[in-house]
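If you are new to this repository, start here. Below is one unmodified record pulled from the training split, so you can see the exact layout before writing a loader.
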Amino acid sequence: MAIKEEHSIGSRLIQAFGAKDLKEVAQIIGENYSSLHNWTAKRRDFPTNVLIKIANLANTSIDWILTGENGNQIVSRASQSFEEMLENKIREIVRSEITEGSAITEKVQGIILAMQPNVNEQNVFEKTNKEEKAA
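And here is the target side for that same chain:
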C-alpha cells in the first residue's frame, strides 16, 4: 500500500533511507512490513526501541521522524569515521542476531544502504574543509 499523505511518517522514513517504498524501509531496518505499516499509519504506537533504531540507522532525530519538525536534522557524529560507524552498526546487528536468531545478511545490507548517504555527505564535508584550509 502506498503512502498517500506527502508529509506522513512513512514518507519521511522513505526519504530518510532513500527507499522506493515502505516495504524497502522494512527490509533495511529489519522489521516486519505489516508492523511498520501499522506504526506509520498510527494504527499502533511505535515501540520506543524501534524508533531509536530507525533514528540511529537513518542518522536523524526521532522528532523529525514522528513530526517532521526541525527539518531532517542529521545527528552529528564527527568524531567517528564512516568505517567506524558502519563497524559499530554491524557489531550491533551481530549481537542482535546471536540473541534473536534473525537473518544477519539482510540487516547488514540494509545498514550499508542506509549509511551510503553519510559517505557522500562526509566526502563533501572533507572536500569543503580542505578547500577552506587551502584558501
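Two things worth knowing about this chain: Confidence is low (pLDDT under 50) at residues 75-79. Residues 104-134 form the longest helix (31 residues).
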